[in-house]
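Protocol step 4 of 5: obtain the predicted structure for the target chain.
Materials: sequence only (see below). No template structures provided, no constraints applied. The aim of this step is simply to have a reference model before the mutagenesis design in step 5. Sequence pasted as it appears in the construct record:
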Amino acid sequence: MHEAGLAVAVADALRREMVGSHEEGHVRLLVSGGHVDTGDFDASLRLHLALAAPDLDLAELEIVHLPADRVCLGCGVPFASIEPDEPCPRCGGSGLSVPTPERVEIELLRPDGRVA
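Step 4 output (structure tokens):
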């Protein structure tokens, strides 16, 4: 699973970003690209983060999946969706994912909700 390697990279980045600069708040991961079931991805990433970073308090971790571009195989209409099996909003057909690299951005949020 690539979530294990991703968890190590996220943990390392968080340690660098949080040193002396992060007051209490929470962490938001913005995930785009990739073609996975979001629930399985989230559960696996959380588990691997807990193993890779037991020293970090990630209780406030929020994982946000951004919509990916797709093209309907039935009618050819482009649309965006979060889940890979989400049907075309026009005809209900299956969507073909447009290949995009997976990207994870880290946002450190202050208690007031602003990005640190």
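Step 4 remarks: Residues 21 and 98 are 38 Å apart (CA to CA). Residues 2-109 form a domain with the hypothetical protein PF0899 fold fold (CATH 3.30.2320).
Proceed to step 5.
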